[in-house]
Design brief:
heterodimer, A: 115 residues, 11 strands, B: 59% strand
């Protein structure tokens, strides 16, 4: 496909379980971003990848959150021991090189519900 | 720290009217500003951007105005249509490791009545 894709689109899990969220960026985009959007809120930055490395992890809320990117393409966001406050929409975006004026293209998001 | 806010959480307009969505930012060093549109169930979509060396930029039916003196920007939508109904976010970007990370405001929900 031409756009950013994310899977699953919805995930319901029980408190304490681990979850993995996947992002497929636009082919050729070197920059990849993860955000979290809680109900009625703006987007909260989590982590940024340039290629396979993550120069900015400053938004990860706790050590239960981690992310990796392989082959300069697919990225996985992992949340361990999920808590109810982790419930949100997790959005992924990619841009061509991560420059100031590079447009970020967002995926549709994964809606995570922790029961 | 950086904060980006919107003045109104909801804006209701009639189809055909012009809409104005406002945004204030706190970091005077911000040099790049973006407006996004987010429709229900979708990710944000880029609408228009403006650099700090400009005070106005126009797109198709949209205009962004930047007032650096009062750290305020606005998005004007001309002849608003029902398809414009969405949440609109302003964002400023900060430099990080060679890239630029947007800081988003909470969003304004635009409701267009036919």
């Amino acid at each position: 496909g031409a756009g950013v894709s994310q899977s699953p689109s919805n995930k319901v899990t029980e408190k304490g379980k681990d979850v993995e969220l996947r992002c497929d960026p636009i082919s050729g985009h070197t920059a990849l971003y993860w955000y979290r959007q809680s109900l009625g809120q703006g987007l909260e930055f989590l982590i940024y990848f340039q290629g396979n490395s993550a120069p900015d992890k400053s938004g990860l809320p706790s050590d239960r959150f981690s992310a990796e990117r392989t082959g300069g393409s697919v990225s996985t966001l992992t949340i361990q021991r999920t808590q109810q406050e982790d419930s949100a929409v997790y959005l992924c975006a990619s841009s061509r090189q991560g420059g100031n004026t590079d447009t970020q293209y967002f995926g549709p998001g994964t809606r995570l519900t922790v029961l | 720290g950086e904060s980006v806010g919107l003045h109104l959480p909801t804006l209701s307009v009639q189809e055909g009217d012009n809409s104005i969505i406002n945004c204030a930012y706190s970091n005077s060093a911000s040099d790049y500003f973006i407006w996004y549109k987010q429709e229900s169930g979708k990710g944000p979509q880029f609408i228009i951007d403006i650099r700090s060396n400009m005070d106005k930029r126009q797109g198709q039916r949209v205009t962004v105005l930047l007032n650096k003196t009062v750290k305020h920007l606005s998005l004007q939508i001309a002849a608003t249509q029902p398809g414009d109904s969405a949440v609109y976010f302003c964002a400023t970007s900060r430099a990080s490791g060679g890239s630029y990370i947007p800081t988003f405001g909470r969003g304004t929900s635009l409701i267009v009545h036919p």
